[in-house]
Amino acid sequence: MPIKEIIKAKAYELGFSDIGFANFEVLDYEIEKYKEWLANKYNASMEYLERNVDKRYDISLLLDNAKTVIVTATNYFQEKQYSNDDKKGKIARYALGDDYHTVIKNLQKELINQIKQYYPKANFLNYIDTGPILERQWAVRSGVGWQGKNGNVISKKIGSWFFIGIIITDIEFEPGKRMRDYCGTCTKCIEECPTDAIVSPKVVDANKCISYWTIEAKPDLKIPDEITEANPNWMFGCDICQEVCPWNKKHEQAIILKDFLARNNENEIDLKEILNMTKEDYAIRFKNSAIKRAKLESLQRNANSILKKKIK
Q: Is 257 inside any structural domain?
């Protein structure tokens, strides 16, 4: 069996849903689109996205003599019905279980160790949302999926409910075949976004995005009234543009890795619990959870925002 096929088999054995390979190239077209996005201030207050643009463009600045970008896709979908209980805040599916940064980085480390058995002198970098990398663009180049109009990468196998992991190596592998765009004329995600955050196909303005305001926006930033009024009780993240996607409805699959199953089978949190939470409570409640991306003060701001809307 060719080594590339052995690597794929090991990836599936570890729990990855898919794996793709892309040859190293500088991202000329993609970086121009990225710079245009930044120029429009669509990154809102996420200034870190403005740094290391040169490395996002040329990953050989991260790993000398980079030859291949290996892309892993890990399904996190689980069928969860969200209530319309005004006393509860919804949590995006990706954050219901253990922190994906830790889980996937460890799995990719295992995969790297397997590859090293065949290439003991090879070099690797292991990333999962932890470096200056255009992950979605590499996922497209690797053949894992195409970029949907909501900006997410969509896989023919599992829809868009997956984490993207990146392994950069100086081993040269045969690249995967790019997948064509299957969105066609569908604009469901654009039409259904309650805050009109998808300003054009594949372009999201974070200033209008519920996920940005409930995760990335710093605690001292007030959520705009128009976002609050349009938000159907999402307290951390938002899944609407994925929930309405016809491709997702057709191809979503049950989760494989138990690490990502909802803790305590919960996909919502009582808003009063958040408001009464101490820093010690927060540290215990969200230990090894992606929810800790938002500080306690941010979660409390989010909870107040939802409750304030209901009081009016």
A: no
Mean pLDDT score, 154-164: 96
- Cα distance between residue 106 and residue 213, in whole Å: 29
Q: How far apart are CA 302 and CA 87, in angstroms?
A: 12
Domain that holds residue 9: 3-84+94-169
Residue 201 located in a structural domain: yes
Catalogue the active-site residues: 129
**Overall number of domains in the chain:** 2
Distance CA 96, CA 92 (A): 7
Taking the CB of residue 302, how many other CB atoms lie within 10 A of it? 27
The HSE-up count of residue 1 (CA atoms within 13 Å, CB side) is 9
Res. 137 pLDDT band, cuts 50 70 90? very high
Indicate the pLDDT class of residue 312, thresholds 50, 70 and 90. low
Q: With CA atoms as reference, report the closest residue to 272 among 15, 78, 63, 88.
A: 88
Distance CA 129, CA 26 (A): 19
Judge if 163 and 41 occupy the same domain.
yes
Indicate whether this model's pTM tops 0.85: yes
Domain shared by 214 and 162, yes or no: no
Tokens of 103: 């889980």
